[in-house]
Amino acid sequence: MIDVQNIESLQIEWFGGEPLMYLKQIIKPICEFAQKECEKKGVKYSTTATSNGYFIFPKNIPLIQRLGMTRFHITLDGPKQNHDKVKYQKGCDSAFDHVLNNINQLLSNTKTVNILLRINYTDENLNYEIVDQINHHITMANRGRITITPKKVWQEKVRKDRYKDIGELLNLFEQSGYNTIRLDVITNFVPCYANRKYYNAINFNGDVIKCTACNDLYENKTHGIIQKDGSISWNMDFIRKYEVKSFENRRCLQCKQLPICMGVCPRDNEYVNVCKFDGMDINLEDSIVNYIESIYK
């Protein structure tokens, strides 16, 4: 990518499983190699990770800084009592407390790291008490580097009226000093990160796919293979769906929200009359207004 395609920037995103279990064994040597190659060619380098946050131990923070990590995407499965049931960790009284303490330590000891804190919710665990629970661990000075994004658990049925509760939850987080995401607005006319030509997801066994949010990651068949020269040989039937314009259907072309959406997920492009917002607990018009108001506060 650096020598042949002459890219201007390289971002490495670590995804698991739990990638930080192998911080020194895998992440360190790969990132150090990438840093050296990027430095030689004048290519901008960064690395981020999707993590459960458990292994962001204070002793690992200097290495995390040295490797150039700038963002962690960490998920909480609802308030403390719910998260600790889902993410039970042997020998740890509370995974919820442990992860949030790790986040606060990380932010207190770095200047360039930011946190995207995803909160998975259901009807059962959607509770405003999570705001105070998080505030208990995160100092006011660090809250401005955390962005809160609530996401409905995919098995949960859609309830459009629930957006009012989500909106109030985000109001409470904003009042406490956090950033929030009220609507996933497309600002670069790219509908999905997987549509980018040079975005590739490399599995632990070397197989290459485009998206980590679908079953491609776990299938036995190979969609892309890394050749000895570093190029990728793709199954063309597979890669073609990421190259087509996913908004070229009647519903998308007639939708006034198309410029902030740019069409359906590439995985759903074969289906007719599908909209990504159908599966979200939002009133789209109200969410757009809330999004604009949050920008100009």
From TrEMBL:
This is Radical SAM domain protein. The lineage of its organism: Bacteria, Pseudomonadati, Bacteroidota, Bacteroidia, Bacteroidales. It comes from the Bacteria. It comes from Hallella multisaccharivorax DSM 17128. One of its GO terms (molecular function) is oxidoreductase activity. Its cofactor is [4Fe-4S] cluster. PANTHER family: ANAEROBIC SULFATASE-MATURATING ENZYME HOMOLOG ASLB-RELATED, RADICAL SAM DOMAIN PROTEIN.
